[in-house]
């Protein structure tokens, strides 16, 4: 994602996003390359319309989303020559921010959790200038807003909310015991534990239907883009633990600042933008010959050590289609998670609340999943006198036009905050995101082997947990697998 990316080629009212991130890695017979045999890292990388002399390098990573950037970061730390190819004009993949009329518009509902363990190792939080949400939520139910607070962060708020209708006293005690349960487990124990759908875990734990419907379904349903809460309990436990240990936050310069920070640390010229890979080819016996990549413009690049594919699963499967034998990942028959995000602006003086809090729809009615006043969390998300409102829906709503969808959202939120306030909001942009997350309903394997062929590796959040952290972990694991194969090859 880029920090301030304007999109003049797109209609500001209607954007359909189908993004992906790619990463490939192949291995050669020796672990180290002679410098003259590797790709020179020029500060002026060739554009996609050039016939490039940059035809050979150590490792080629396909896709500059979080997974590809993490892979490139680990290759760079090992002084392994690499080239990172990105089909679009900037890093980030699905993690992008657009700049419109002084507003920062993240592409979809995306919140960063500060306790992500892999992110803590790779990112400079201070430089990101993270702006924190209130640790809890305001839940709209029965025509009113009710507070749900994290007892570890807001004890008195939590105590004062014991009698509200968002769950019983027992439910609130169960939340505290659930926090203790996940904190006593390591991350590896969580992602390899026995799994059931999240909804079954909540019922098995003893939570009432009221707190499931009024809090867990809108809150975690909004995180997973899964209203039915069929997502694996492994993912629920991992995120629940991270929420207990850390804060929900936004970088002051937009969610795009996260991949931008990773990209800025890579060597100049090591990222080629507007460079879409259309095929991976082996010139001879797969076990002997490193793969080459053909770009959309006809250029051919050859890896000397391997290829890492860091794109969304459907795109990765297309690129892997020609590899023989085929130990490639099997297509996931489960439908991917989709979402629509709408942005509105208003005068800051007209904002009905000042707290940096997430609002959840606990009513069981309507189409809004959650919303928040982004400029309450991060004032830099809008001009000094304007507020930015973010509204998230689950699903694509293909049968509704952007105009009708906007009208429906305005009408619904008028019931939350009052029609005189909401009718003054100005619609800025609608994002329909066809691939928001992979579907991680059971059964899952969050420790998948990244090696899919001789010298070819995959990474992405569909191989680990469908989180920012999972994408970063998968990039590291792909590089570790490549290095293990190189060591094994050099020994043999």
UniProtKB/TrEMBL annotation:
Top-level taxonomic group: Eukaryota
Sequence ranges of Basic residues compositional bias: 20-32
GO molecular function, one term: oxidoreductase activity
Compositional bias ranges of the Low complexity kind: 38-53
Region feature (Disordered): 20-53
Gene3D superfamilies: FAD/NAD(P)-binding domain (3.50.50.60)
The Amine oxidase domain, residue ranges: 66-483
Pfam families xref list: Amino_oxidase
SUPFAM superfamilies: FAD/NAD(P)-binding domain
PANTHER family xrefs: AMINE OXIDASE
The protein's name in its UniProt record: Amine oxidase domain-containing protein
Organism the protein comes from: Quercus lobata (Valley oak)
Upper classification of the organism: Eukaryota, Viridiplantae, Streptophyta, Embryophyta, Tracheophyta
């Amino acid at each position: 994602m880029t920090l301030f990316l304007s999109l003049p080629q797109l209609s500001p009212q209607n954007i359909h996003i189908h993004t992906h991130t790619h990463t490939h890695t192949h291995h050669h017979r020796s672990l180290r390359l002679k410098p003259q045999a590797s790709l020179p890292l020029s500060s002026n990388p060739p554009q996609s319309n050039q016939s490039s002399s940059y035809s050979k390098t150590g490792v080629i990573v396909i896709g500059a989303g979080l997974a590809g950037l993490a892979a490139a970061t680990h290759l760079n730390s090992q002084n392994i020559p690499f080239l990172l190819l990105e089909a679009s004009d900037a890093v980030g993949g699905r993690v992008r921010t657009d700049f419109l009329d002084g507003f920062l518009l993240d592409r979809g509902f995306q919140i960063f959790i500060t306790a992500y363990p892999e992110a803590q190792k790779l990112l400079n939080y201070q430089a990101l200038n993270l702006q924190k949400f209130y640790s809890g939520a305001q839940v709209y139910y029965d025509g009113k807003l009710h507070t749900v607070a994290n007892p570890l962060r807001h004890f008195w708020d939590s105590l004062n909310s014991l009698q509200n209708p968002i769950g019983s006293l027992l439910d609130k005690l169960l939340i505290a015991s659930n926090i203790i349960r996940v904190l006593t487990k390591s991350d590896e124990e969580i992602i390899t534990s026995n799994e059931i759908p999240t909804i079954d875990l909540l019922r098995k734990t003893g939570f009432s239907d009221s707190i499931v419907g009024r809090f867990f379904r809108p809150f975690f349903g909004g995180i997973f883009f899964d209203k039915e809460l069929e997502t694996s309990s492994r993912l629920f436990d991992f995120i629940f633990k991270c929420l207990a240990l850390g804060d929900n936050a936004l970088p002051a310069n937009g969610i795009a600042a996260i991949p931008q920070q990773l990209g800025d640390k890579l060597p100049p010229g090591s990222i080629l933008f507007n460079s879409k890979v259309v095929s991976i080819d082996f010139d001879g016996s797969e076990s002997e010959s490193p793969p080459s990549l053909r770009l959309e413009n006809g250029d051919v690049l050859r890896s000397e050590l391997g290829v890492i594919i860091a794109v969304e699963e459907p795109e990765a499967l297309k690129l892997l289609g020609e590899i023989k034998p085929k130990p490639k990942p099997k297509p996931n028959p489960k439908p991917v998670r989709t979402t629509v995000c709408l942005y509105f602006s208003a005068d800051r003086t007209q904002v009905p609340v000042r707290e940096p809090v997430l609002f959840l729809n606990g009513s069981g009615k309507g189409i809004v999943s959650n919303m928040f006043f982004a400029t309450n969390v991060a004032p830099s998300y809008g001009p000094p006198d304007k507020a930015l409102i973010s509204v998230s829906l689950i699903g694509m709503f293909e049968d509704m036009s952007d105009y009708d969808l906007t009208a429906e959202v305005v009408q619904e939120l008028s019931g939350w905050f009052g029609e005189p306030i909401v009718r003054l909001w100005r619609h800025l942009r609608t994002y329909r995101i066809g691939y928001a997350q992979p579907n991680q309903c059971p059964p899952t394997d969050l420790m998948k082997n990244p090696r899919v062929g001789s010298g070819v590796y995959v990474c992405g959040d569909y191989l680990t947990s469908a989180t920012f952290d999972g994408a970063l972990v998968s990039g590291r694991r792909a590089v570790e697998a490549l290095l293990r194969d190189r060591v094994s090859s050099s020994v043999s």
